[in-house]
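Hello forum,

I keep getting stuck at the same step: I have a sequence, I want structure tokens, and every attempt I make locally crashes halfway through. Rather than fight my setup again tonight, could one of you with a working pipeline run this one for me? It's a single chain of 131 residues.
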Amino acid sequence: MLTYYIDKPLSPIEQEMVIEQINAISSDAVKQLILKQIPDHIPKNDCELPHAEIIKAFEDILVKLEIPVGVQSTFILPKGGLSWGMLLQIAFKNVSKFYPFVVQPWEMNADRKHKRRERILVTDINSAIPA
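Reply #2:
Ran it on my machine without issues. Output:
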């Protein structure tokens, strides 16, 4: 399964955790993740652009990356990217016709610093939203 990341790819152990979770929530069996990096010159949290413009910029990037239409991908949420990561998920839906599986490898500790989770979370927004 095509898996897109921005800041840090998954380790082999993390990939196995993600594959296990995707196979538990999806009817399509996944055997491996094919990692592809999304360029890190995308609008960030401090961007003042309207959401529609940010989504359009994301769509253009995803088209250049040749995101396949009609196929669900996986997106690894970057460290500190929750707010604009949601906009990127909308762009995935607009380009591929599916929201991606969202992998959440980061969490904040008590000192408000990001660290890798011991157990990575995977969500499938498609299963929660009627077609």
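Residues 2-128 form one domain. If your local run keeps crashing, start a new thread with the error log.
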